[in-house]
Design goal:
mainly alpha, 6 helices, 0% strand
Length: 119
């Protein structure tokens, strides 16, 4: 839904659609933080979480800019590869084994990418 909303944002909106999405995410998490308090994470995990959040925001900004410049076909193809990225990182960094479900997901992402590029 977020990608559709970003795709509908006009060029005059600037980066406000991404900012609104980030604020909405904080608002959704706020009741949990109020009820249970902020999570207590080691410094290393806190830094990693902040880097992941910054990477997600950067990805949304780049997607918004692609949508505003009519490069949505390229952005959608790249976004369709998202399911493969965590699996590949798990293989490369954590030396995990690929399950049959993950293999099916990777094949599905590859098929979606091919279908999107064909139009």
């Amino acid at each position: 839904m977020q990608y559709v909303a970003l795709g509908l944002a006009g060029p005059s909106a600037g980066l406000w659609p991404v900012a609104a999405g980030r604020v909405a995410a904080v608002v959704l998490l706020l009741p949990h933080v109020v009820r249970h308090g902020p999570p207590r994470l080691p410094r290393r995990l806190t830094v990693q979480a902040l880097l992941v959040g910054a990477g997600a925001a950067l990805g949304l900004i780049l997607y918004l800019l692609a949508a505003q410049r009519q490069l949505l076909a390229v952005a959608v193809v790249l976004a369709s590869l998202y399911p493969a990225i965590p699996v590949i990182l798990g293989l490369a960094l954590l030396h995990e084994r690929v399950t049959s479900r993950q293999t099916a997901g990777l094949l599905g992402a590859a098929a979606a990418t091919v279908l999107l590029t064909l139009g």
